[in-house]
Amino acid sequence: MYWRQSDPVGLALYKALASVETPLARDVRHYLFVNGSRWDLVRENEPFVGTMKMPPGRSLYPADLTRAAVDSYVAGHAIFDPFTVVHRSGADLVGRKYHDEFAPFASEAVDALRKAASLSPDQAFATFLRLRADALLTDEYYASDVAWIDLKNPRVDVIFAPYETYLDDLLGVKTSYGAAVMIRNEPESRNLELYQRWIPDIQDVLPLAADDRPSVRGHRTPMEVMDTPFRAGDLRHGYQAVADNLPNDPRIHKEKGTKKIFFKNFMDARVHEVILPLAARVMDAAQAKQASAEGYLASTVLHEIGHGLGPAFARKNGTSLDIREAMAGAFSGLEEAKADVVGMFALRWLIDRGALKKERLEEYYASYVAGIFRTVRFGTGEAHSRAEMMEFNYLVSQGAVTSDGGRYKVQYEKMPDAIARLAKELLEQEATGDRARAEAWFKQHGTMPSALAQALDAARDVPIDVDPIVSFDETVK
Known about the structure:
The chain is an alpha+beta fold. It has helices at residues 2-6, 8-16, 23-35, 67-70, 98-101, 103-119, 123-136, 142-149, 186-190, 193-204, 250-255, 264-282, 285-290, 293-307, 323-327, 331-352, 361-375, 383-397, 415-432, 435-445, 450-458; strands at residues 39-40, 46-47, 84-89, 92-97, 156-164, 176-184, 223-233, 243-246, 259-263, 313-316, 319-322, 401-404, 407-410. A hairpin with a 2-residue loop joins strand 3 (84-89) and strand 4.
């Protein structure tokens, strides 16, 4: 289903190349799978097969559809529904629900989820699986999302839904299917209880007007460390996520909070194979040694907490509006940046309260900046990379990151104030739903400096990302 949302032509090519036994065909087919399309994520989504430019809405809209054409439709029109594919019908645009568009594939998934439910000794988990199967047939995910949030420390867990909007650079609202099977890491999950306790208090101290600060007090906000033996769709192709904060429904955020999941096997691979080797090449030598797996985990945990903090809705023209809809194509990058920066704001606050050790502050900052160097290699066509390129440039503009002899150094004493100012800016952009302000901000701070490009190019032998090899069948139907 994801392939058909992303690039059905690329899928057809991927399947056709299965019977071509040449090194070039194998390489092209593999790279089609890595990207889930014909467009190269790490090269600003330029085509690596053929010459067709990536449509901003992928295959979720007609390829020639523009934002200006969409703006002529009222917000309540079906084309704004996060679970519809937009087609032309004469001169009109119509939205077709996902469960109709992808019916043959959804029905297979439904059968598999129901069979899994029948095998589960955990009745709450079995109930969730059945509700999620029902949701795939209706595109109504609320009940299954509630059941998922309410699971208590499941030994095995599953993501299977259209959640993220990374494919939609046109409206920023269309979701894409993603799936993962997860096995709970009990000792590491218990270590997260420290953060879980403080979430309501962090919400209360954000640099944001009180009216824009929804209360999360009393909400159960599960935090799980999981190993992931299998993932598919949005979670398998392109950027390999090491964490997730779900669901994205603002009603669930308001009533329940969110579930924060950390994929430990993917995080370990990222840190040890990419982040730390890259930091050793581009950062001040002493600071590169301060960066650590534990420091990166802390920044990632707080990033996911940051997704669930801040305004739940945008204030626009006297009404409350879903932030995704208000920000359209600017949303993904803005939200990833907000989560990063609010997370680092929270980190300093936790240290000031004695919840985290003060002597580790430099380790945390070094690990956060080391992670930026990894992420920006994806180019501004990817939401996380777009976010962290902006963060890097802003920190440089505030003197919080400096360069000396081609290596970058964090000015630790300047980080807290720079982070607080940036958090306030990004939170206000979301609270006001001011798309023009966000677009201008990212344009001002979003270009990779030539010196950084040169430093990263000199370290091009360090992998950009992990490419998982799994022991399960990954045949695409």
